[in-house]
Amino acid sequence: MQNTKELNMKKILILCLLSLSLWSTALTNVYSVTYKGSIDTIEENILEHFKEVKLVVPWKLDILNEFKRKGLEKKFGKNFNTSHLSSVRTIVACNGKFGNMIINADPTMMAFCPIRITLIEKDGKTTVLYVRPTSAPKDSKAYPILKKLEKKVIKAIEDANDFENKS
């Protein structure tokens, strides 16, 4: 009888651990999608779709080139870019309507607006990374606005790419 109880407890424990693992994976704060294609093409498509949904891009940065320009390649030597990325870029974008609504609802949530996406390229594939504003506290008055902003940004990223090229 004791063996049956132990076996059942082990099954319950395994199920709990699996559930916890799946739950934490589903709650990742970073949206990530990878496409077959150059960073130039993916970036251009995203910028076009950002315009369509009225996300204004006041700033872009080629991070990897900036690191090289600042001499970090020499400074870090063999420890520089050990992931062997061919390009790393970031885009900062803002929508005035959403920004104003967030300021009015909870100014501390402006940490999520303007939004920032990062693109990384390796081996002919480009990955788009975006910190989800819904990682903000759910009790914030700005949370419903942040949910809408996140949906708009992710839709623009996904619409900007041919899903046949998704890897």
TrEMBL record:
Positions of the DUF302 domain: 70-133
Classification via InterPro entries: DUF302 (IPR005180), TT1751-like_sf (IPR035923)
Pfam families, A to Z: DUF302 (PF03625)
Source organism superkingdom: Bacteria
Name assigned to this protein: DUF302 domain-containing protein
Species of provenance: Sulfurimonas sediminis
